[in-house]
Amino acid sequence: MLSSLPSFLRGFISASVLGINTLILCIPLLAFSLSRFLIPIKTWHKLCTRICIVIAECWISINSGWMKLTRPMLWQVEGLESLKKDEWYLVTCNHQSWADIFIVQHLLNRRIPMLKFFLKQQLIWVPVIGLCWWALDFPFMKRYSRAYLGKHPEKRGEDLKATQKACEKFRDVPVSVFNFMEGTRFTDAKHKQQKSSFQHLLKPRAGGVGFVLGAMGQQLRTLINITIVYQEGVPSFWGFLCGRGDKIRVKIEKQAISDAYLGRDYSNDEVFRDQCQHWVNEL
Questions:
Q1: Is residue 27 part of a domain?
Q2: Displacement of CA 167 from its chain's centroid (Å)
Q3: I want to staple 60 with a disulfide (CB 3.0 to 4.6 A). Which of 13, 109, 147, 252 is the partner?
């Protein structure tokens, strides 16, 4: 246990292990992913996909290791017992710190299918991590603004088709799609600027969820709704690496997703957009 060390030293150790962990495991991850293009055998493709997921789960487990070493882990967690690894899930969480991602990954690793984020297409160019996301089949979304569609009406529906194509490989293998409905981290300044009606949340954005539900058809039947409360104040990412903000409460709730939200076109169906926005506001 390293929790007795000075906080800056714990931060240095955590950051070092995280960096080394990422750089080392990205090599076999990319090698197996690229081999899918070199060996045109479907069985091999499926095997490589499973191996890539195992590598990613090992990456998360190693991160859990430095988290356990650098803090006493005074976490109160409820709702883990009802999760299964052979189901499809839509996962959402309130967003206050980059630490949120590591906390959610630590708690859900190997309890449900590996979390996959819908990412903007430009993020594939992020050094190292962008290639890792690509190797793990994270779907990269191409979104058109309403202004762009107004000038190019022939492009209507193309973004949904691209998303559906990216999700085709998820139809036969269970997956957990992760989305921060607030779209960005909560801060008092953003909360004030938005004039959000929620005390502890920014205004939720329904677009990402609407696209996921439209693209994934009938697979996504269950929502996992996660709430993280930092009882000693929200830590920065560096503060989290240093072991600060350790008194955390996490509530995990499961609920069914209505058939009314599945397989619809968020871009062109105004009624569905309103229904989806109302639903996430209620959540």
A1: no
A2: 15
A3: 109
Residue 147: inside a domain: yes
Q: Answer whether residue 139 is part of any domain.
A: yes
pTM, full prediction: 0.87
Residues 120, 30: Cα–Cα separation, whole Å? 20
Q: How far apart are CA 258 and CA 213, in angstroms?
A: 10
Task: Note the helical H segments in 195-258.
Answer: 207-215, 237-241
Structure tokens at 251: 């509530």
Residue 38 located in a structural domain: no
Taking 80 as the threshold, does the pLDDT of residue 19 lie above it? yes
Total domains in the chain come to: 1
For the segment 81-101, the average pLDDT, to the nearest whole number, is 92
Which amino acid type is present at position 265? D
Contact indicator for 95, 184 with CB cutoff of 8 Å: yes
Residues 6+ apart with CB under 8 A from 90: 176, 177, 179, 209, 212, 213, 220, 222, 223, 224, 257
Structure tokens at 91: 């996962």
Report residue 222 as tokens: 């269950």
We report the CATH number of the domain holding residue 268 as 3.40.1130
3: its two tokens: 């929790």
